[in-house]
Amino acid sequence: MNDLFQFFSFSDPNVRYVTLGTMVLAATAAMVGSFSFLRKRALVGDAIAHSILPGVCLAFMVSGSKTPLVLIIGAIITGWISLLVIDGISRTTKLKNDAAIGIVLSVFFGLGILLLTSIQHSGNASQAGLDKFLFGKAASLTKDDIITFSSIGIVLIIVVLLFYKEFKLISFNPDYAKVIGLPVKFLEFILATITVLAVAVGIQAVGVVLMAALLITPASGARFWTHRLGNMIVIAMVFGALSGFFGSYISYVAPNMPTGPWVVMCLSILAIGSIWFAPKRGMLAKYKIQAENKKKILVENVLKLFYHLGESSNNFEAERSIDELLATRDLRKIELNRGLQLLRKDNSVRLKEGNWYITSKGLNEAKRVIKLHRLWEMYLNQRLKLEPDHVHNDAEAIEHIITPELEKQLEKELNYPIKDPHESIIPYNKD
Amino acid sequence: MKTAIETHNLTVSYNRRPVLWNIDFEIPTGQITGIIGPNGSGKTTLLKAIMGLIKPSSGYTKLFNKDLNEVREKISYVPQRESVDWDFPASVMDIVLMGRYKSSNLFKRIKQSDRDIAAEALEKVNMLEYSDRQISQLSGGQQQRVFIARSLAQGADLYIMDEPFVGVDAATEEAILNLLTEMKNQGKTVVVVHHDLQTAKDYFDWIVLLNTRLVATGPKEEIFNKKLLQEAYGGKLNVLSKVGELIKEKDFPVRERK
Amino acid sequence: MDAFWIILTGSLIAVSCSLLGCYLVLRKMAMVGDAISHAVLPGIVIAYLLSGSRETLPMLVGAAVLGVLTTVIIELFYKRAKLQVDASIGITFTWLFAIGIILISLFTGQVDLDQDCVLYGEIAYVPLDLWFSESGLNYGPRAVWIGGGLLVIILAFIFKGYKGLFLTTFNEEFAKALGIAVGFWHYSLMGAVSLTTVVSFESVGAILVVAFLIVPPSAAYLLTNKLKTMLLLSSIFGILCSIGGYYLAVLINGSIAGAMATVAGIIFLIAWLISVLRKNRAIKPFDIISS
Question: Searching chain C, which residue's CA lies closest to the CA of residue B100?
Answer without folding.
Answer: C178
